[in-house]
Amino acid sequence: MNKARNRVEAAIAALALLLGITACGPAEPGTAGAPSVVQRLTEAQYRQTIADVFGDDIRVAGRFEPMVRKDGLVQVGAGAAAVTPSGFEQFDRLGRSIAAQLVAPERRSRTMSCKPQSDTAPDDACAGQVLAKYGRLLFRRPLSPEELAARIAVANAATKGSGSFYEGLRLAISTELEMPEFLFRIDATEPDPDRPGRLRLNAYSKASRLSFLFWNTAPDDALLVAAERGELNSRNGLARQVDRMLASARLASGVRSFFVDMLGYEGFETLAKDSMIYPAFNPAVAGDAQEQTLRTIVDLLLTQKGDYRDLFTTRKTFVDRVLGPIYYVPVAPKHGWISYEFPEGDPRAGLLSQISFAALYSHPGQSSPTLRGKAVREVFLCQKVPAPPANVNFTVAQDTSNPEYRTARARLTAHRTNPTCAGCHKIMDPIGLALENFDGIGAYRADENGAPIDASGELDGVHFSNAIELGRAIHDNPAAPVCLVDTLYKYASGHSAGPAQREWLQWLNGRFAAQGYRLMDLLRDIALSEGFYAVTPAPAPTQNSAINDASGRGEG
Amino acid sequence: MKRNLLSTAIVGSLSVVSALASGEGIVASQPMPPALVGQTRGYVFTHFRSSAPPTELTKDCPNGYAMSLRDAFIAQLPPQDQARAQQVKGFGEVASMILASDNPKDGLKLGDDMKAVGRLSEAESKAYFQKRRDPNRHTICNNPADYQGVGFQTINHADPASGLNLDGTADGQATARTCAHQKFADIDGVAAVDNQFWRAFGCLAVYRHEGLAWDSTIATGDWAILMEVTPTGQSGKDGEVDVNFYASKDSVTLNASGTIPPGLSLEYIDDPELIARTHGKIEDGVLTTEPVNFTYKYDNQIVHNRPSFEAARFRLKMMPDGSLNGHMGAYADVDKLYGFTVKPQTIDGASANNIDCPGLYAAMRSLADGDRDPKTGTCSAISVAYDVEAIPAFVIHPRKTAAADADRGASATRE
């Protein structure tokens, strides 16, 4: 039945391809795809997966090795992340702790799908049932018979050694939690039947890509079932799952994770402010500032299904009593958040005027037009700014007590007299200076050291006089939505787009624009495209392909 | 464009708020001194403490600090014992503890302790103990009127001191509502200051050095006073204002420098006893209010009280940073004020702070200048002055019903 349906769908899709049309706009261009990747689970993905698979009452108490940021995203850096011996020790400790909680007497009624014949003797059938169930969810694919047999053997031996079925099971489950198949997202490929000679992700890897993109966690049972049935290889079957996931409340989690990565929020983990200069800043402010921005994003892009570009101009946001004093707005409820709209005439609008951006891209004791301008260029416009030369002299730029240069504009103007600095500052500073009305933690100020702040500037030929107009300039800058598409693709696929994806990304950008820059439409287009799953053959044996082979599922 | 906070969307738990209004031009998202035009300003008191001006002791109290409870006790001993007690290190403290004790057994035990160290005979200690206790075994500081103060020092000059002119006279002559008293000289633009409280407390060492530590603990988050100032005129430029005072339901929070930041949102307690409404005027950057009975809620670890003032009035300068700075002048019932300032710290605390309770109480009564009894001509309230500092805050009105929220949220910031 499924095969027949898939054949019909494939025929319809082929016809549409021949005619060069789809339901909306031009048809998806072909793409050679990109290399398969192996990505280590991020801490958030690990924690969410454990909660989803075992229940959110399972404590995940441990430290995770830091990830590296590559090409602007931690998720891309995850493709280059290894596990050091000490890191493996941490995973081992976590795995043992989680498994122990899972088989604890008080949880067995929920976590055990069978009861052993004896609590003190091996029961391979029951152990196999449990290990297969959890192994499938953790590995994001069914265990091969060999893999399952190996796990059962561990449980059997440990049960005999300990005299406890559950102790044996605990050890076997902990080994599942330490396997590369769980700790790494491994792209497994197969020949693409529609494009002879080319590869595509297999159904389980498709499921993983979808799940981590939409929900930032491992595939749920329904998605794995769809993969098992081959439904993800048909457009309609894939669409059913994509639409189901897009309709889920869990989509917010995935979108938040994407923007946490895009906005560089791991920087908050080490963000420090001089408490003498910024006494209002504390860890609670840092945490709630991130939450405010993420709530703003989710509300605009998912709840309101709004235009992505409006993130730079929206006056609507959320505040709580922690942030209220910095924004100087009233917050009625003692706990929790309220939606708030900055009134017309208020100097704040858009993400750039929020505390999170202002504080993250500032120095501990002063604002930084340069850091802010660089962030706008790199994060929101995807324009690379070269690193400063090693011998640059920052004395003038950082001396806020110099009466000759009372404002950041004056200091940077003096700093730019150095020709080696001028080139880059020219593209960063005008943007950052527009945000100078927000100090190093995002509080409003009309002047600096008694001198009025001039927030005027220019972005790619568009002149502005303040942060509001800068937000409008970014909103209208063609590079902004293109950058989002590029970044989202990098995040979803784990690698930067190359020349092979250029035409495909242009098609995606066209769709994004035609649909009013709606993130959910963009997510759907990416998820339903063939290019998203297309894989180029590896030029030579690599560690990734070796792992694919070892998994028993990789066919590429 | 002027800021109108109520025109903004405050969705969710919508309550009426009062807030700092903004001036002309671009609207700021943080505190700034605004023009008071048609909008309510909210404040939270960051400092509310009985005034203890930094004046010279020798000028205020020529005979030195007021005698402490210990010294008063020693002064009442027979001459031969006084000399011995003065030489005995620690005797006074032990004696004070005896006096402070509610439990005769404790007193006897302490008497035993003194005997043990050879300071007093058992008979002597029991005699002193029994001499200083009333038949009901009440403690001396809880029943100060039952005892006689010994040489309690007060301030008797007319030099400048903090406060306001409460009785309206220039010389402190008796009126229908007040008793004759000595005025302090003009200070900070205020003429003929009434502050009999300062005369009573001003020679206490602990008060001069630390003030009343128990009346300024706002930063602990235990209590706070909120204030709203709302223009009443059509144009809002005639300076006439309504002024409301509330007790905060919420604790203030501190920033990293340990100070209360401006812009906190604080809900008030919906209790009529803790809400005071009056009128005022803003002239030349100074807010003055008309007299109003004012009760606030005070809490700390061991004291839970509702101190009240009669005919309280405020004179507050509006500072460039948006804060207020000035004084409250008022009358306080002597017994209530004594009960709040001395009793709650426990009798041992009074001893430790060297306060001669009978002496202080007697001074307060003799210096009382308000709430004159027309029949006896005596006064039972004393004029007080409090230092006040306030910063902008958002005063959150308690939510009552959804319908009330809608009405209040859509109309005005005032109730």
Summarize this structure as a short list of keywords or feature phrases.
heterodimer; A: mainly alpha; 3 domains; B: 415 residues; alpha+beta; 2 domains; eight-stranded antiparallel beta barrel; two-stranded antiparallel ribbon; disordered C terminus
Describe the structure.
The complex is a heterodimer of chains A (556) and B (415). Chain A contains 25 helices and 11 strands. Chain A has helices at 2-19, 43-54, 74-77, 85-102, 108-111, 124-139, 145-162, 165-176, 180-183, 203-214, 221-228, 235-247, 251-262, 283-303, 324-327, 355-360, 369-380, 395-398, 408-415, 419-433, 467-476, 479-493, 502-514, 519-528, 543-551; strands at residues 38-40, 184-186, 189-191, 199-201, 316-319, 338-341, 447-448, 451-452, 457-459, 462-464, 534-535. The longest helix of chain A has 21 residues, at 283-303. Chain A folds into 3 domains: 2-36 and 188-257 and 537-551, no CATH class; 42-184, no CATH class; 260-476, no CATH class. Chain A has 556 residues and is mostly helical. Helices cover 50% and strands 6% of the residues of chain A. Chain A is globular. With 415 residues, chain B is α+β, with helices and mostly antiparallel strands. Chain B has 2 domains: 43-58 and 151-397, no CATH class; 69-138, no CATH class. Chain B has helices at residues 57-60, 69-75, 79-87, 91-100, 104-116, 122-131, 196-201, 205-210, 334-341, 347-352, 357-367, 402-411; strands spanning 17-18, 41-50, 225-231, 240-247, 264-267, 276-283, 286-289, 292-295, 298-299, 304-305, 308-318, 324-333, 370-372, 379-396. Chain B has an 8-stranded antiparallel barrel. In chain B, strands 9-10 form a two-stranded antiparallel ribbon. In chain B, a hairpin with a 4-residue loop joins strand 9 (298-299) and strand 10. In chain B, helix 2 crosses helix 4 (91-100) and helix 4 (91-100) runs antiparallel to helix 5. The two termini of chain B are 25 Å apart. Chain A binds chain B through residues 275-276, 278-282, 316, 321, 324-334, 336-348, 443-446, 466, and chain B through 1-5, 7-15, 17, 19-20, 26-32, 250, 255-257, 259, 261-265, 267, 394, 396, 399.
